[in-house]
Amino acid sequence: SGRAVFSISNPFQTNTVLQHKKPSELKIGVSLSTLNNPFFISIKQGVTETAKKSGSKVQVYDGQNSTNKQSNDVEDLIQKKVDVLIINPVDSSAITPEVKSANEAGIPVITIDRSSDGGKVLSLVASDSKEGGKMAADFMIKTLGEKAKIAELQGTPGASATRERGAGFDNTAKGHLDIVTKQTANFDRTEGLNTAENIAQAHPDIKGLFSQNDEMALGAVQALKSNPDIVIVGFDGSVDGINAVKKGQMAATVAQKPKEMGKLAVQAAYKYFKGEKVSSQIKSPLELIVADKYK
Amino acid sequence: MKIDMLGISKSFGNNHVLRDVNFHLDNAEVHALMGENGAGKSTLMNILTGLLNADSGQILVDDKEVHFNGPKDAEEHGISFIHQEMNNFGEMTVLENMFLNKEVKNKWGMIDEKTMRAEALKIFQTLNINYNLNAMIGDLSIGAQQMIEISKAMMSEAKVIIMDEPTAALTNSEITSLFKTVNHLKAQGVSFIYISHRIEENMEIADKITIMRDGHTVDESFISETNVEKIVTNMVGRDIGDFYPERHAETGKTVLEVTHLESNDKFHDINFTVKEGEILGFSGLMGSGRTEIMRAIFGVDHRNGGDVAINGNKVKIMSPSDAINQGIGFVTENRKDEGLILDFSVSENIIMASLKDLVKKHFIDEKVKDDFVNLLVKRLTIKTDGTNIDAGSLSGGNQQKVVLAKWIGAGSKILILDEPTRGVDVGAKREIYDLINELTNRGVAIIMVSSDLPEVLAMSDRIAVMYEGNMMAIVDNSSHVTESDIMTLATGGKAND
Amino acid sequence: MTSTRNEQKVVKEVKDRKILQQLSGLGPVLALIVLALITTVMNPSFLDPNNLLNLLRQVSINGLIAFGMTFVILTGGIDLSVGAILALTSALSAMMITSGVPTLIAMLIGIVFGGLLGGLNGLIITKGGAAPFIASLATMTIFRGATYVFTNGNPITSKAMNNSFIFQFIGRGYFFGIPVPVIIMLISFFILYILLHKMTFGRKTYALGGNEKAAFVSGIKVNITKTWIYVISGIMSSAAGMILISRLSSAQPDAGTGFEMDAIAAVVLGGTSLAGGRGRIFGTLIGALIIGTLNNGMNLIGISSFYQQIVKGIVIIIAVLLDRRKKA
Amino acid sequence: MTSTRNEQKVVKEVKDRKILQQLSGLGPVLALIVLALITTVMNPSFLDPNNLLNLLRQVSINGLIAFGMTFVILTGGIDLSVGAILALTSALSAMMITSGVPTLIAMLIGIVFGGLLGGLNGLIITKGGAAPFIASLATMTIFRGATYVFTNGNPITSKAMNNSFIFQFIGRGYFFGIPVPVIIMLISFFILYILLHKMTFGRKTYALGGNEKAAFVSGIKVNITKTWIYVISGIMSSAAGMILISRLSSAQPDAGTGFEMDAIAAVVLGGTSLAGGRGRIFGTLIGALIIGTLNNGMNLIGISSFYQQIVKGIVIIIAVLLDRRKKA
Ligand SMILES: Nc1ncnc2c1ncn2[C@@H]1O[C@H](COP(=O)(O)OP(=O)(O)OP(=O)(O)O)[C@@H](O)[C@H]1O
Ligand SMILES: Nc1ncnc2c1ncn2[C@@H]1O[C@H](COP(=O)(O)OP(=O)(O)OP(=O)(O)O)[C@@H](O)[C@H]1O
Ligand SMILES: [Mg+2]
Ligand SMILES: [Mg+2]
User: Fold this and answer.
1) Per UniProt, which keywords does this protein have (chains C, D) (predicted)?
2) Which ligand is nearest to the CA of B393?
3) Which of B300, B344, B364 sits opposite D198 (nearest CB)?
4) Which of B45, B174, C308, D8 has the fewest Cβ atoms within 10 Å of its own Cβ atom?
5) In this predicted structure, what is the pLDDT of residue C140?
6) Domain residue spans in chain C?
7) Which residue in chain C is spatially nearest to A40 when comparing CA positions?
């Protein structure tokens, strides 16, 4: 590539060609959107455990929920000449340029949970967040009946999980459930607690509460302890969340299998370097875990 | 208590401030300590009270070697220090200030306000002063604050009280009551180390005097055996002749006219004019509103009415930058607060009011700037180790000259000087007076606010006298005006001619 | 001297000042009342005693941290590490309880540890001479990182925590119908009020913020006093942490993120100057209540989350500007 | 006076001073070199020209914001709203490009708007008399909320953005092999360097931070100068935003969160005093490079993300303490 005066591709970047590699020779670069949350830690565990079993080297970076930090991280991973990138994007549009950079450098990209809007992605390992939102809504309609009054705890404004889970839930609930209020608690357990307390004050007649993640739902559990009949539905299937469902504190949680996602992503990489075809969409199953009393 | 400081030396970096200084204080004496600005007087006292450590030398108290860990330690051993720089807390009340770090506590460890209040009032009574103990100390005049500092020292039952420039901000009546107290305590065996640039005061109150120059002690003698000329010569190292220069005023047309200037609670209906080449003195007691008038003219404070005209044209001055554009300069009373940026260099301070004159094609011309600064430093004989050193490390008199340089450099046609020689040594004072005369010779109009009556009388062409915000009179100084004439006006009496 | 006239002047001045002072104490109180009124009009259930207790409980955590922050800010300093101290110490205590240490002892150790972390801040600032802002920014990062390392990023929950009555009681209990966190907040307020306004330590705190050089000359042990103040801030943060883990029944590694800003806002809304030397801890209590009422009220009214931030920012600006105007 | 002795003294002092000044400029440079050395030893690919350009590009956004922040901090102020200004203005520009406004014009409008937002900060601080910390904390919340309202919480991406060469070029392009963001950063540095060190505006900036009262009495228009400084900070933030949306091919509503802390850290690491009046913009450039090298280096070395925070905090403390020691 000639060094044009004006160019958009990196003039120093050299392309590498696909070679067959054994898992034990692979360097896997992983960029996760955050590690402040058990869900993503499970993804990390899925990746590292699977990779270690086969003797691959793994480097995991924490994007700290910042699109900017993540794009720096991915650049650094490209710089380190990893063989494959496993990315769990903070945002699917903001990751596009980095995916393109990786493409240029000839590094295959596998995304987890969210994909990239552009560039070439080898495979997306995900469960469908919108579908998850729909599952939660269906469950609520079934348990509470039509037109029940419910509240919704939203995640961090603008985050893709907030948008997709919310859209899936709201679209299904429309006309069937009466969402009296939607308030953000930023995916945070403490804020979930305070906000749920305030919601209960403003709307003492709600019958259910949908929380866009388990953390906020667990906060709500503490807030609504005095009224155990309120149907709380979370999202994620985190360890604490599943425990709360088992104890009947939460009615249900839309469980994703983060560890499974991590495992599937690594396995996809191995397949690729064996020269096998990798499917562009690997579905990680969603499961609605329901407390005994609502079964 | 007897104190002997022997062979004390102290350097700050390359600056050898004290070189083998000896100082002796006897029981029940008032001992004046004099010397030029920067001679090392405050430093010597800081070493005595443990605020600074000497590089070498020893301190004997009643012939026993001592070393104090700090001011509190010294105080517990009976040595109390009233600092030159006000060491108080503007946002705290008078009472809180007086008992700071020596609060009286009750048996629960709580502060005992009642006892403290009673003690404070007792001290006030002996000093014949009265301030509200609940007032924020920052709201009181500098003089009041100084008196409270003095009360604080009295309260500690000290055997030795060090006063560093206690009277710089006091009025005559306060000085009188201070001296009464000093003599009273002396009779009870208390000793004083008294630092002041006012020679007359030293002659009046002190028993003995020690003179420092260039970090040495050059003379120690009984007041009764010395005289003003000898003191000055010892201090400055040469004869400066008269304290005040001859003054031959040649005034031109009126440049500044102030009419019906008004501020709600500070001053009322102020009218005066100043001519080219004239010095208009402003006299009055503290709090009489002189500073406030100047601040209003210069646009520092807002005024409630009245007009300012320059060369016959009414001007609108809303801020100091407007005033500067009209050719006014203002050497503020409080140089540390408003005059200087202490941790900026001499050069940066001097150029501050003339920035736009140093610009060539949008950029600051470094050469023009250096020439400008060097010229002013030389012309005002500012004693400094280069123009790049912090203004704060200069002696008081030289700091004052830096402020003067700033305004002279700004090319002010009208120069307001508020207490231009406060805390300045006799030698430097004389230089400043010469400079003022030189400026008027060049046609600059000068307003000089001063609490130093002899200075006002010696330098002014006319004298405006203020009393509680009102202008009592503007006296022509060409005739036989005396200090008592001015004092009569300044205390609300009528002029008797 | 015309002492009578001057005295009259002084007396008048002092009276004016007293009134101003009381007004300036009332400024935040007034803001709080207005806020409460508006909220009540929009949703009367705000005044429900249940909601008020609820509000107070929500305020308690920010309140405790802000009380400690008041001392720090009075000295002209700032402590950005409070949220991180909260997270690290509460993780520590939760871990100890989980591994069988009796609840009270575990919490006490956590609080003492919080004091130590605060002391570390104090040392870096006094001995090291670093500006409080950057020093506590750095320790914030360090403490937060340490929490992640310590917890491996996972929340800590356990049977031991859920089964301990005391553990549950601290954050969720009631004492004569009043939530325990509220009682803890009020007791802390009382103690710190005495410390600040009735004891010499408080005088030293104000003196440090008013004029540090003068404080030094007055013989105040500047470094020691300052270090203690950061210790207090650390203790209050970890105490708040104990309430938080009890309320959440778990210790979150990212707990307390952003708490520093809420605490600073409470202090400043309460009329304490960021330059130090001026302010009162009572104001901080009111400031914390304003923020709490704002959060609670906007939830009650049902303002959309996007607009909540805008409203919060505007209220802070208005309150601060009103306070400034009054002083001018 | 013994003038020869004095002159000698003057010469010597001035020399000492010059050396000291240069050393104090070198302090951060030294820290940077040490960091780079350590990283190179641990992973030689750090010195790969590719990686160095990469590093510079990563630094550019924080660098731009930190340059503006340098002016603010030199006056003794602080601007916490930089990240929020970045988000709001970049969303605005992205939206305009999406709806057909030519890229350059849209970006220019965004940058001007950033200046206006900065000016708003300036007005609240000067006219309103609010402390910069709390004023910019409040506007940070407001601007962020406004961004959410404006974008409805969604990132903005569009064909128009992806198809515009200029848009892509700003953040991802190369000019003679050098990344465009790096060039933008260097040009901004040059302009602001001249403004700060060669023009009267810079003198005024320093004077404001040194002693605001004295500056006022010396005829410096305090309010106007200060307001302009916040305008500069706003402009630099929105310029950084333009690079960011190009790099990310989209405008994120939560972009820039926490950028204020990185910028402040860069300024302080560069030796500028948070009290105002003392510091240099060259130091800020070095400070930003230190932070960039730290992030890049730790990634290259492969330090686990939890430990990265701890290391970062410790390095900041060490650098700041070393700088303080040198001055004492
Ligand atoms: N902390 C310090 N660091 C460096 N230099 C100092 C310090 N304190 C004093 N100096 C220098 O020591 C010299 C003596 O200062 P000192 O304050 O003792 O003088 P002084 O006799 O009290 O003068 P004045 O009459 O103006 O009060 C001056 O040159 C001053 O610049
Ligand atoms: N009795 C008082 N109560 C409250 N404030 C006072 C009082 N006296 C003076 N002040 C204030 O203290 C400051 C200093 O006053 P100062 O005594 O310098 O006034 P002045 O008229 O300039 O007299 P001088 O020039 O002799 O100092 C001024 O801001 C003044 O308003
Ligand atoms: Mg002195
Ligand atoms: Mg005056």
Assistant:
1) Cell membrane, Membrane, Transmembrane, Transmembrane helix
2) 1
3) B364
4) D8
5) 97
6) 52-256
7) C153
- Measured by CA distance, the residue closest to atom 13 of ligand 2 is B141
Contact B355 D203 (CB under 8 A): yes
> Where on the phi/psi map is residue A26: left (φ > 0), alpha (ψ -120 to 50), or beta?
beta
> Residue D210 and residue B351: Cβ atoms within 8 Å?
no
Q: For B451-486, write each residue's pLDDT tens digit.
A: 888 899 999 999 999 999 999 999 998 768 888 889
The residue whose CB lies within 8 Å of the most ligand 1 atoms, and thus the one to mutate among B8, B14, B42, B196, is B42
Q: What integer pLDDT is reported at residue A10 of this predicted model? A: 65
Q: Determine if ligand 1 sits within 6 Å of the CB of residue B41.
A: yes
Tokens coding D165: 């060469």
Contact: A201, C51; criterion CB under 8 Å:
yes
Q: How far apart are the C-alpha atoms of A277 and B5, rounded to whole Å?
A: 94
Pocket flag, ligand 1, residue B38 (CB < 6 Å):
yes
Q: Which of residues 251-280 of D touch C (CB under 8 A)?
A: 261, 264-265, 268, 273-275
Q: What percent of chain A has pLDDT over 90?
A: 57
Q: C145 vs D313: CB contact, 8 Å cut-off?
A: yes
User: Can you spell out the DSSP letters for D155-199?
Assistant: -B--HHHHH-HHHHHHHH-EETTEEHHHHHHHHHHHHHHHHHHTS
- Those chains having 3 or more beta-carbon pairs within 8 angstroms of chain D are A, B, C
Task: Please report the domains of chain B, with CATH numbers, ordered by start residue.
Answer: 3-238 (3.40.50.300), 253-490 (3.40.50.300)
Residue type, B126: T
Q: Is the pLDDT of residue D9 over 80?
A: no
How many angstroms separate the Cα of C46 from the Cα of each of A181, A190, C34, C174, D118? 16, 21, 13, 20, 37
DSSP lists the bridge partners of residue B475 as B463
CA gap A261, A233 in Å, rounded: 22
Q: What is the pTM of this model?
A: 0.89
Our measurement of the distance from residue B397's CA atom to the centroid of its chain's CA atoms, rounded to an integer in Å, reads 10
- The candidate with the shortest Cα–Cα distance to B347, out of B405, B269, B296, is B405
Residues in chain B with CB shorter than 8 Å from the CB of C7 are 130
Q: Do C277 and B89 touch (CB under 8 A)?
A: yes
Specify whether the backbone of C201 is left (phi greater than 0), alpha (psi in -120 to 50) or beta: alpha
What confidence tens digit (pLDDT) does each residue in C105-154 have? 999 999 999 999 999 999 999 999 999 999 999 999 999 999 999 998 88
Average pLDDT, 10 consecutive residues per value, chain B (497 residues): 93 87 94 90 93 93 92 89 83 92 89 93 87 89 83 86 85 83 90 92 94 90 91 83 84 94 90 96 89 94 92 94 94 88 93 90 91 92 88 86 93 94 86 92 95 90 93 87 88 67
CB-based neighbours (< 5 A) of ligand 3, an ion: B 42, 84
N- to C-terminal Cα separation, chain C: 31
Q: At what angle do helices D281-301 and D3-42 cross, to 10 degrees?
A: 20
